[in-house]
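Q: I have 354 residues here and want to know how they pack in 3D. Can you give me a structure?
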Amino acid sequence: MSEPSAAPPAAAARPAAALRATTVATAVSLLLVLAIVFGSRFLRTFDAALLPYAVATVFLAFGVAYRCALRLSAPASRALLRQRRRALFSTAAIRAAPAALSRTLITHLGLRTPPGARSRARWIAHQLILWGCLLAVLITFPLTWGWVTFTATGAAGPGYELRIWGFKAAGFDSLSFLGWAVFHGLDLAAVLVIAGAGYFLWRRMRDRGSATGQRFAYDMVPLLGLTVIAVTGLLLAFSSLFLNGGGYGFLAVLHMVSVVFTLICLPFGKFFHVVQRPAAAGVQLLTDTARRTGQVVACRRCEEPIGTAPLAAGLRTTMRDLDLRLEEAAGYCPRCKRLLRGSAYLTEVKKGFT
């Protein structure tokens, strides 16, 4: 009776990588809890009514840290991270970094993609969702954690004080334009999100190409979650302003459930690319910096440029770590790889074999 074959190294490493990722994610969650406790001055400025939102952000931190740690445990990610760190802290890279960093932040983070890369309508919709969600996060997360509070300066007057970690940061009149913008920032964010998500929902229902390859849980649920959050948030404001609080309790619960569900599911769905985007921008910054400093690799056969030296070195390291025995392939362009593969077939398998 033959003995069972040993498990592949990659399969054997998965449980250990998952355990490390869980440990890292737990540590990040605990750090966030401690930051909430200390940032709210030992919960003195923490609003107990916002506890479900705060718990959801802790789960969000756990999921994001777990996915990132698991991704970085892969040989390719580790090699790329080493190459990126080595390249970015070199003397030439530091000299070229200011211009390259500004360009990367604008095109790959601020504007997501250059305007001509996709259709103008899709680009605008992406911008609406991006800036709407970013505005909502900048407002709600500090409020949820108790880091930011608004305190009335008097019982009869419209004056308010903005306090950060318990210290006064600014004062403003709630009846001024600044006061209106502060207290209606979430409404503006909701309008932006509804416009962007509504376009993508309409496109996925009407465009045959999008509808063919979409998956409901992966493509539609995140958009529906954002839409429900934005619509219920606007309805809360509408109930307070025009209905004297009618239906406010039901809308508040529905809004809370939709927010908590979306935050918990975000690390494991399509919107995780929000977290991945800065990493992709880092790769682009590494590529631009390497090109500006002359670190370009040419094909060993046709001598055409095929990429940057840091990325090629990372590819060779990954192939070596995975024992693929294809390190030499990193030195050829795709066309020459096809030609060499065809020549090998003719030599080894004989010409005319089908």
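Q: Anything worth noting?
A: The longest strand covers residues 167-173. The two ends are 39 Å apart (CA to CA).
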